[in-house]
Design goal:
By secondary structure, the chain is of the alpha+beta class. It folds into three domains: 4-103, 3-Layer(aba) Sandwich (Rossmann fold), CATH 3.40.50.20; 132-201, ATP-grasp fold, A domain (Dna Ligase, domain 1, 2-Layer Sandwich); 207-455, D-amino Acid Aminotransferase, Chain A, domain 1 (2-Layer Sandwich), CATH 3.30.470. It has an eight-stranded antiparallel sheet with strand order 14-13-10-11-12-15-22-20, sandwiched between helices. Helix 5 runs antiparallel to helix 6 (107-114). The chain is globular. Bound molecules: ligand MV4.
Length: 499
Amino acid sequence: MFKKILIANRGEIAIRIMQAAKCLNIETVAIFHEVDREMPFVHFADYAYQLQAETPKSGYLDIDQIIEIARTCGAEAIHPGYGFLSENGGFSQACEDAGVKFIGPKAHAITVMGSKTGARELMLKAGVPIVPGYNQKATDMNEFKRKASEIGYPVLLKAAAGGGGKGMRLVEREEDLIENYEGAQREAIKSFGDDLVYMEKYVINPKHIEIQILGDEHGNYVYLGERDCSIQRRHQKVIEEAPSNILTEEIRQAMGKVAIDAAKACGYVNAGTIEFLLDINKNFYFLEMNTRLQVEHPVTEIICGLDLAVEQIKIAAGYPLGFTQEDVNLQGHAIECRIYAEDPLENFMPDLGAIDYLRSPVGRGVRVDGGIETGTEVSMHFDPMLAKLITWGSNREDAISKMIAALKDYRVIGFNTIIPFLIEVMEDETFRNGYFDTGYIPNHFDFEKLKQRRIAPEEELTAVAAFLFTKNENKNVVKDPTPKINNWKANQLAIRNLN
Ligand code: MV4
């Protein structure tokens, strides 16, 4: 087993991986840009090295510098987390060439799954169901039109080098095909430097169901159930849950088998996720494979009773899985809400600032994976996700109830977060009855209702001021009327309440 590993990431996922390493008695090395110097993940590591970089983001993408730090400090392995270099085949290869173990798949698997058309071709050969479509570059537009007619409108045009919905165009009629094709090409070359655009039949109102798999270096594979990630906005997941309440055991097993076939087809090793579209008739189609540990992995590990980051490290160290498919037993229901520093009433515009006061919810069946603390500065350098709140219940209703209570207990004072939006979703009948799909937020969610429910600043500040008053009241400290939050209005209220 490794004695020291480097985590090439920041924030909550860096802490999450360090926690797993500590379980295995492995020393941890953090890398950080200057702007992150005081972040909790830097202090949580056993060692920390500052990255020299022009911009905060470029530091975490600097392959040569990161590998050089690993070699200098004697780290035998590197965990990439998610985002940054986690799906960069060149990084996986560079680690291998440098004799530092990459805690993830080989470069080949990352590269082949990184091309959406390459992945579709491979899945076709492996007998994995894909959405009917046309993978070739359109050299002859009449041929392309014929293919579209064969597939049947509406069709979806997608960038082969894309992902996350960027550059997708929905075409309802033949007369709009060429104009949209050319537009999609322009966007693809601009966003991804590759103008290959392919076509798929449009699956109406799909659910996004993904299967977690693990593969070790000895040819063993297991699937760990599914996650329903349909509650998304602008192709960004917001709420995820496991299991999906509409999947039957029969469909679960069929999707699990197909997911393992997909992993075997690219010689996949370590943790991976196969994303599917599930249509109204419960037909499922391969969408893409994510060759990394995902943000939403906690809902799977909670219902499986596994630590996926520990499993990843053990696989990278050459250990066999240690359990078989028969040992996998899903218990209860888990839900994850991502806590974004965004204003849901301003089209989820990121909101920045310092955290004047942070109080995370705790309790039975409540887990918070966070990378922040009171005083943390939320900057525009990185993704605005602050933390993940996960609840577990014996069934879905129980998990939802715990989530509502925990969200109402969360205090992030200093800027807007999507917590009020998340409470609204948890209390919404369509969410609660499970009959939602990927169109839930854009087509169903009632933002007007949220607006009515927004806590008037006065009430909120009074609540905070009263809390601080109680806090101060309970302490045998010198009565200091100036509470420790730098929100002037709360101070005024607190002072007024104290007098
Ligand atoms: C689709 C689709 C319907 N039909 N492909 C969105 C991002 C990228 N992962 C693929 N996406 C979709 N591909 C076909 N043939 C609908 C979507 C889609 C979607 C998929 C999953 C989760 C959320 C979504 C939101 C909008 C569209």
